[in-house]
Amino acid sequence: MVNLMIDGKQISVKENTTIMEAAAQNGIPIPKLCYLKGINEIAACRVCVVELEGKEKLITSCNNVAEEGMVIYTNSPKVRRHRRTNVELILAQHDCQCVSCTRSGNCSLQSVANDLNILDIPYKKVLEKRPWDLSFPLIRDSSKCIKCMRCVQVCEKIQGLGVWDVEGTGSRTTVNVAGHKTIHEADCALCGQCITHCPVGALRERDDTEKVWSAIADKNKTVVVQVAPAVRTAWGEELGMKPDEATVGKILDACKRMGADYVFDTTFSADLTIMEEGTEFLKRFTEGELKERPMFTSCCPGWIRFIKSQYPHLVRQLSTAKSPQQMFGAAMKTYFADKIGVSPEQIYTVSVMPCVAKKGEREMELFHGEYAGHDIDAVITTRELVKMIRSAHISPGTLKDRESDRPMQQGSGAGVIFGVTGGVMEAALRSAYYLLKKENPPADAFKAVRSPEFQANDGVAEAEFSIDDVKVRTAVVSGLGNTRALLDKIERGEVHYDFVEVMACPGGCVGGGGQPIHDGKELAFDRGQNLYCLDEKAQLRFSHENEDILVMYQEYFEKPMSHKAHMLLHTEHVN
Ligand code: HC1
Ligand code: SF4
Which residue range is the domain that position 335 belongs to? Predict the structure, then answer.
């Protein structure tokens, strides 16, 4: 142990603890902007400076280790003076248009400046304005970038892509798309992890809320909304609701109150995906068609973008099943449109997703006889949903639990866990067991694919199951850096699997790039546990027991992988 004094308090911490951590462990928060534990500890912002007794120069607390006998002041007049100057210099290069900034109220720069009581910026403003294609789902505003390097590090270290890089030197150092490329050329997976790790509003998703409001106002449109599994475990965070209060039923109620005509839960189509993808897997697996193993899941568009750009030769091993978002859109514009007697063109499909890549996935076309359009017309993130609720002046306390509309009402616990890493695999195995044995396994029989600490084990959970004499080797991975490592092992023949689930975001969609942002805190694990609790409490635990899905097959799609299902619910992945 190391003994030192911080702000007059005698403390002991483990060796190799940074001064910042030592202070935090003892209830002394030190302000910071660029620091991200284990990812970005480069002291770029110099907001975390502290005074070390006996030393003239201040030191940064994020990358200096606590040493025996140190006497540290985190908030002395000298510290405050320097910290203030550092923040003022950052503000001089930052477009401080807080009223029109998506991060207003949830911005670390704003809080640090407010805490330092900065009312005026004594330096000349120099803003960097670079052009950006505002139609791209991910938007970067260079005039808001504070060069903290978090996006560079997250994309490189966690997602293994390196879309962002440092450009220039000295006072001209800045961040930009690496290799002088445009963002279109940069192989961005659209996972949005750079957005959720940006301390300010320099990175954000394209706002699609106005499109949704316009569709709602259009009397000729029937607005049909779906809400993804992972949204239910995070939307309440921004509205001050407890996890058990912030139910999916209340989101559906909010959507209806905002003017949606019909509201649905994506867990319905997650069950549909299991029917299609599970059947496809068994077909490929038992009929000897799975020559090239493993088959990869296909519901995460961040992953699809990644495999297409990084491992194009593996694309043919993707399941052809569309994601639940797309399947629901296709069912809404065909089966459901028929049911309510409205033409597909009149249906306007909106999905509420924890994800930025889903905004890109919606570009996929829908071919239905004469009609060619899109399964999905607009995608909004969890954050955009909260913005809409706020702008509709809906007080969360007045929301009631509302059921999904009929006839696509039911959703199983298996569908709910799609939102957490391992969930798609577990749901698929529950139903694959049934398809093989014609009886249900215990609902938790495939728990081994849950990764209790998905950050550990390189983000991979491996499991092998025997169903009678059929042995299925599975792996589940989240985070694209982890995915790259796993794919390389598969390619080198070091590991062998039959079925692999990949989610681009660490922890799965619960940690998605469209989820509420809590600077420096990772909530994916807790949100995932919440989804497992919802599954445990669900009346229905198996996708193949979803009555509304069975009726839809009877009335419309006939059976999984039928011709109609193939046309509407599957897609050929091409590079
Ligand atoms: Fe997901 Fe999925 S789980 S991909 O993360 O398969 O976004 O929540 O909706 O489509 O169901 C996202 C979540 C989501 C799809 C489902
Ligand atoms: Fe989107 Fe989920 Fe994939 Fe992340 S893991 S990119 S939130 S679908």
Answer: 208-575
